[in-house]
Amino acid sequence: MDHYKDSELYDLGMNDSEDETTVAEEEVPVSTSKAYIPPSFQQDDNRTRFKSYNGFNTVDPLEVFRNRGCVTIENVKGKPLQTATGRVYSAAGHVSSKTLNFSDQTTSNTSFLQWSAIPSFRKSFMSTDTENKPRPPKCYVPPVRDIDKIYEDDSKSAEDYSKVGDYDEPLDVYGVKTMTTMDCWTSLPPVLADNIALAKYPSPRQIPRVAVPLIIEGMDVVACTETGSGKTLAFLLPIIVKCMNDKKAGAFFSQELTPYAMVICPTRELAHQLFEQASKLIQNTGVTAAKMYDEYAFFPNTHELVRGCDIIFCTPGRLHHFFKEQYVNFRFLRFLVFDEADLLLGEKEFMYDIDDVIKDSNFALKTHYQIIFFSATFSSQLLDASTSYMRTHSSAIICSKKCATNKLCLQQFQRVEKDAKFTTLVEILNNRFAEADASRHPRTIIFVNSRVLCHELTQKLLEIGLPATRISGNYAQNERIDSLYDFRNGVSPILVTTDLFSRGLDIKDVDLVLNYELPWHIGGYIYRVGRVGRVKLGESLTFIDPTYDK
């Protein structure tokens, strides 16, 4: 592969008080990857914990859960599994082999632990000079969409929502012998069920069906299911329900800067998106939500927390900064959620910040809060790392019976020489725009491996008149949010981005993901193509350079 010096995989959450650095990454073979295994807790909470293997799994990390029981939850509608489909094109663009249909039955023995989700990367900090790095205005406050606008997006996808859950995978639940699923919304408080009805969610999909009852019951949970399967709803709903119940019972009172739950995200855009989604669910419930992440101006951010922060959505850098400066109080925390947990657990820089907070004597005792890990990919090393935080006898693991890409995505591959990539890209985009309805240009996400190429490719597309925008880590946060909204609203229907945008972000009407460059590893590919097929059929196209992509 053609590596760039400033290639970017993650958005490192640096403190406002620190200089941001430019990161270079060197690829490490997936087979040698090891998760960051956190050191043991300093606080004595008198509870039995899972044994940590310090990165070397001498036993199956699922064994302790299997010994307590395993339940398989079938799809509520009992429909057959969908098949994964794909096409391979020649350099000329013609189909060079028949359409491939891979039945899921061919991978029936594939465990999600056989996939190494995130390789370890050796990182060298090239420079601490940030004078030329764009920064948002000093008083920057990220804009938030109106609730009506968020509901409007849901309404547009209502018909697709009614079908997308029909083919959800069966789930294995380790750590329980029996369980009751949540098959309809009527078991939730009426005001919350009304908000869900406004969002046009017809019935619970597989992961909320299974995870919500377990979390409400008080269990620590690890959940691993495919992209676009409804994981966000699966952890937000039980948090809102339990917060409402605890307030009603007098077990929790909203206080300034004192959250009930905290959701940690690897990127600012994901934290922002989760805040917006939570905002529509907590209407009229008495539960409040707030966000805190880097490049959100300091004083406005603290004022937002003061106005109400029962649920906080944050990135590791701002979390560490605000906690150490005592701008937030986590003594009464009841929920700690790792969203995109494999990336958080697998990245040392993230976990140094997170561990420094949750091991602090001013943080809630582990006996007082539940911990939840959600991701679309997980390796055995990362599972071992997550269980070091969990309770042995009150925890469960939920995983899809298959570890695969989103099956509502038609995966296509085309042989393209490096020098011909841009010409081929322009031909594809022009053809798709010509075939599209004039009232709506097809939404296309183009993934590259570096910030430099992200900028250069966007400029070249704009120069020839194609409506493109870009998101990568070397742009200021206001530029990133503006680009995201322009893409979401169709102002710029072509988005060029790095893997920064591959995680968790939910834009339901994306038509095509185009991998201009191959990602570094299989996990990156799964997340990239997972930006389509979230509620309706979508396509991905990956350029394969026979010289550079051997």
UniProtKB/TrEMBL annotation:
PROSITE patterns listed in its UniProt record: HELICASE_ATP_BIND_1 (PS51192), HELICASE_CTER (PS51194)
Biased composition (Acidic residues): 16-28
A GO term for molecular function: hydrolase activity
Keyword Transmembrane assigned: no
Pfam families for this protein: DEAD, Helicase_C
GO annotations of cellular component type: cytosol
Keyword annotations: ATP-binding, Helicase, Hydrolase, Nucleotide-binding
InterPro entries linked to this entry: DEAD/DEAH_box_helicase_dom, DEAD_box_RNA_helicase, Helicase_ATP-bd, Helicase_C-like, P-loop_NTPase
Boundaries of every Helicase ATP-binding domain copy: 212-396
Domain Helicase C-terminal: 421-550
Protein name in UniProt: ATP-dependent RNA helicase
